[in-house]
Automatic annotation (TrEMBL):
High-level lineage: Eukaryota, Metazoa, Chordata, Craniata, Vertebrata
UniProt keyword Metal-binding present: no
GO molecular function, one term: GTPase activator activity
Protein name: Rho-GAP domain-containing protein
InterPro entries assigned to the protein according to its UniProt record, in alphabetical order: Rho-type_GAP, Rho_GTPase_activation_prot, RhoGAP_dom
Keywords for the protein's UniProt record, in alphabetical order: GTPase activation
Length: 137
């Protein structure tokens, strides 16, 4: 895919997320996510992923939003694996996409750690947990 195609695809994805009537991650789950991300040093990657997924289970997060989040996190994981070629490392992706997944003003609710660095950790833990569970099925 050429540079122009990559840019057009990125803009389309970001536009889609901006145009959603509500954020992919509802504000009501922020406290649970914040707690899990702050306690992650005491937990294994798999355990952190399970806790994050538990906070995101329906009805807290509508099923369509959960599917969107799952697909987007897998896509961002693939993009970050090519960071040597596209300069989109996990930190940069978290910086770009966290404002699109969380409501405006969420920085004050989750703080800078949970939005920028936290989305990187969140993505890694969720993808690890989902991939592990898919391998088991």
């Amino acid at each position: 895919m050429g540079q122009y195609d990559t840019q057009a695809l990125s803009e389309a994805l970001m536009g889609f997320l901006q145009d959603l009537p509500s954020p992919v991650i509802p504000k009501s789950v922020y406290p649970s996510l914040k707690t899990t991300l702050q306690e992650e040093e005491e937990m294994s990657v798999g355990e952190t992923g399970r806790c994050l997924l538990k906070a995101l289970e329906p009805p807290a997060v509508p099923l369509p939003s959960l599917f969107t989040l799952h697909y987007l996190l897998r896509h961002l994981d693939r993009v970050s694996q090519s960071s040597a070629h596209n300069d989109l490392d996990p930190h940069t992706l978290a910086f770009l996409f966290s404002p699109l997944l969380l409501t405006a003003g969420s920085v004050s609710h989750l703080n800078k750690y949970c939005t920028y660095v936290g989305l990187k950790t969140f993505r890694q833990n969720i993808c690890f947990y989902l991939n592990s569970n898919l391998d088991e099925s």
